[in-house]
Fold this sequence. Notes:
The protein has 14 helices and no strands. By secondary structure, it is mainly α. It folds into two domains: 31-104, no CATH class; 118-347, MetI-like fold. Helix 2 packs across helix 4.
Amino acid sequence: MKRYILKRLLLMIPTLLGIITLNFFFVQLSPGGPLETMIARATGEEVTADERGSGQYTAAGQNSPFYNTSQIVTPELIEDLEKLYGFDKPICVRYLLMIKRFVTFDFGESFFRDRTVTELIKEKLPVSVSLGLWSTLIVYLVSIPLGIKKAVGHSGRFDVWTSFFIIIGSAVPVFLFAVFMVIFFAGGNYLTWFPMGGLVSDNFAEMSFLGKVKDYLWHMVLPVSAITIGGFASLTMLTKNSFLDELGRQYVTTARAKGITEKRVLYGHVFRNSMLIVISGFPRAFFSMFFTGSLMIEIIFSLDGMGLLGFEAALSRDYPVMFSTLYIFTLMGLIMHLVTDITYMLIDPRITFKSARGGE
């Protein structure tokens, strides 16, 4: 077991390095970048999509996409900007410097926000963690019991009616649920039961402990509900189908023939075996809610989290923020996959991590 964990931890190093390396050179060699963005700001002009994609800029002249009649981009300005962003160094040197900083979790400073990336991550992380953690927890707490009940009562009235709502939850995009909740419950056109946006109220610091907890949960109701409604459908059906598959196996028939109670058959044997496939999807479910799944929710409910931070960094070519968020999410994903493998063994002791030679 210990040897397996050590091997997986060592394997994370080349995997993480490979992902970061490919993304670094792909982004750096792509046309456009932060230099063009800052030159456009310096000249008081916006960069269009075509200009950003062309990657062309000159010191002066009417053919330059950054030409401005009142303010010309000089070679000195370009040179200063290159030194400011480190583009005066060769690409390989920039890559090695980035890897050296990442080893010590030094992510540098944002190009356009005038703050360190670590400060930005600390500020945005609670929002994404709140959305991802609560949504994933509620989805699993609802979907697993619901899927089991649907499997036990397969083709019954409860199974048919719940399937109707599950199909709706699976077919309707998450952001539509979010918009619906804003319109009806957050002062859109009808009720104002919940706040429109933000993680906490403006006077959060002045509240008591219980008041802070209540205010935090009050702000989480709508965004978490929107993500949960859109995410529980697939897990419920996965749980149901996994249970049905196990219920049809020979060992279940044998256990029932021996007079073992139905409750013990379901939760002593079937549950343990059927939950393996459900748990294997936990990392994917968590990160889809933590990052990609919560991006639209963050925008609709004005929640400034990691998803929105990474999206805006990609649009503005804020390289330190882009690569830092990629590094963090990749590292967390690798760790979560290791946790999943360990959880397999905790649920089913028959699963071991011994090698074919018999050693751990």
